Amino acid sequence: MLSDIEARGILSQTDASNINTSDHEGNILIPEGNIADPGGIIADPENIPTDSKRDTAVPDESNTTETESITVYIDTPFRRTIDWLSNHPTQPSQYFCPTEPVTMTSKHYLALLDWLVEDARHLLEKLDAFEQSYRESGLRYHNVPHAFRHGKTLNIGFIRLSPFLLHRLAVIFECNDRDHVNIFQDWVGLDTHAKAAIQKVNSAQDLTDVQELRAVQEEVKKEVLEAEMYTKQVGKIVRSLERMVDKVYASMPELEEVDLSNRYGFQGGIFRMWVATFPEVKRDLVTFDELAEDMVKNGVEDGTWWSEN
Predict the structure, then answer these.
(1) Could you give phi then psi for residue 175, rounded to 5 degrees?
(2) Which helix (H) or strand (E) holds 152?
(3) What are the C-alpha distances in Å from 290 to residues 79, 137, 281, 305?
(4) Which residues have C-beta within 8 Å of that of residue 208, sequence separation ≥ 6?
(5) 156: left (phi > 0), else alpha (psi -120 to 50), else beta?
(6) pLDDT along the chain (309 residues), means of 10
């Protein structure tokens, strides 16, 4: 065991003036500060080399230049979705209590009207699709020889078509005015109620009274429901016509060539009379002859005959 004199001799190599080396019982005491740094030499800021000190000086603001940022909002579907989600509550406590009735405000009713007007527009887009299917069936029908589709030919070995079926197709695809054909009342009904709903919503955009908005919302809802009923009926009619035309094609022994491009021909004239019943021709947006020639060359193309008119 080291004596008190030997211990003092060892510790004399350090700055003993800053260290309490032993207590009154002669026990060696650990110096204050870091063990690897007896006496706290490195801990003393004055003992740190100048080049290793951290530069804590505040930069001169006069030498700094700030670049002004400009935020540009680009309207994209993704951005609209993010904006829509950001308006929703972020915490469960922010939602309404399920047992308490929600107090409807003008914003709530305007939101409901926006949903209803989207439903009405979707129904008009369905009517466009039905119109296209109807025209495709009609174009196929007019490519069948006139004598055959009127049952004036005898086909041995093939099923004879019902005269009622042939008459029904003739009334629909050889008409000169849709107003005289019952099935198109459903077309008109769908179009009328859907556009009435859109018109009522547009007229209610400036309303702020909750009672008035509630009344408009009920009226628009009824219009949309009526349009949906007509949509189902039009869909059934179009699918039925497709099946009837398929039966005509299946019963034909041979598909004879029919020249629909000749506007002065017998079948070409009947075809143009049918094309003249289309909505865009009635609105004078295109002539029936131009539309007929385009259908003969390119078939039935996509269109927004009802949704954008």
Answers:
(1) -80, 160
(2) none
(3) 43, 20, 10, 16
(4) 106
(5) beta
(6) 48 46 48 47 49 50 61 79 83 73 86 94 96 96 88 60 89 93 95 96 92 95 97 97 91 77 91 95 92 94 86
pLDDT the model gives residue 172: 96
Sign of the dihedral through C-alpha 191, 192, 195, 197: negative
CATH class of the domain defined by 106-298: mainly alpha
CB 226 within 8 A of CB 188: no
Looking at residue 64, its pLDDT comes to: 53
Query: Which residue is listed with tokens 């290793």?
Result: 52
Q: Among all chains, which residue has been given the structure tokens 């008109």?
A: 188
What is the C-alpha to C-alpha distance for residues 9 and 226, in angstroms, rounded to an integer? 109
How far is the C-alpha of 40 from the C-alpha of 18, rounded, in Å?
9
Taking the C-alpha atoms of residue 110 and residue 296, their distance in angstroms, rounded to an integer, is: 47
